[in-house]
Amino acid sequence: MSLSRIRQLGGQSQSSQPLAQERDLAVFEVFTQRSRGLPHVHAGSLQAPDIDSAVRLAREHYGQDEACTHLWVVAREHLYGSSSEPCPINKAIEHEYRYARNYQGVRTLWKRFRNEQELKEYEKNDLREAY
Amino acid sequence: MSVGGLDEIVMQLKHPEDPEQLGAFQRRIDAGGLVELEDWKPEDYRLGMLRMAEHHANSEIVGALPEGEWITRAPSLRRKLALMAKVQDEVGHGQMLYRVAEDLGKPRETMLRDLCEGRTKYHNVFNYPAPTWADVCAIQWLVDGAAILNQKSLAEGSFGPYVRTMKRINMEEAFHFKSGEEMVLTMMSGTERQRAMMQAAFDRWWWPCLMFFGPPDKESIHGSLMMRWRVKTKTNDNLRQEYVDRFAPAALATGLQIHLPGPSNSDDPAQPNPELVIDPLCKPDPTSGHWGFTEPDWDEFYRVIRGNGPCNRERVALRRFSFEQHKWVREAVLGYHPSKN
Hints:
The complex is a heterodimer. By secondary structure, chain A is of the alpha+beta class.
């Protein structure tokens, strides 16, 4: 339906049929990749009558908001989310031993054997970004 | 690297490619770009990357076995929890990597079956026994340390899905490594008996860890093409040298000795073999600063890779047992209907 026709209708359908938009549009979620190699990140959603139009709209809209190299578009009805309830097992047990950042005592142990300079040299290859 | 060497690449290809596509592909790689699943890639690249991801996935799955057997015997609740978490992580890494490999064109079921039937390999290092708790400590420090060094270099690779998986895996490896350091340092701060036990385990793991990075570059059959395509970013020998530079001085500082390869103490695996001698080359070079080391026993490496290591049969048999035992789970997931059988 053309925009002029919609304006002419003044937002009120004169026929008993709903407007095309109401009847046929589906919601699509858009994920953008800001540069090659990065993960796709949720950017927002849009409405479109079909997947091809959704990809085209997503490129125009989200692809121009911020420069991006690639887009994923998926119909919202095909996204399945987990429950937001915290996992009862995670709540019940402390998991501090699962994280490298909780092993600060290791440095103290090393200091029994190595001086500060040697230790600094050795720690250069640690995966600091993971702490 | 220049594109000038394209002829050299063409000569190494097993599957001929269109030179223009090959050139464009190489330019992207040389510019530091990443290859995504939907991009055109040479068939040899796909196969090389698949082989690497599958081998890595197999290694994560089999790597959980030598440590897994110690969960029930961990010396404290904290160590038990951490070890369970670590083993669970490794299996999870295997799942992620099988996904990467599967997207490159080999069905998961075939990969699992090939592993059980000995048609595909996993890291040689997991074919060695872990007879004492100190072996668990050594594995988490030395083997995970080697894996991290390797995986950090692979995270600089060219295949996007694999690179992103490496980064996720390394986050968890950081915990394994810290936990390993804590265990080794606790042992080396302990009683004489604990230190002896740690030494015996160190003697068992040092040489397999040096071999972990693969044969010397001059013998490596898959080397140069994989380097040109950034499937690998560092050579085996470079990684090995980096490893020795980091771990040899650290081990010596804790009071461990670095011996030449030799058999374990046959009477008691918790005691070092008194006949082992110190590696005379293991000291820093006064000019370069790099640590020396005696060349590992490459005959042993090839013997183990051919399936004749100390634990090859045991590891594959356990994997096959689990695979068969859990057949019903896979069937249940796929919707088992008695009427169809």
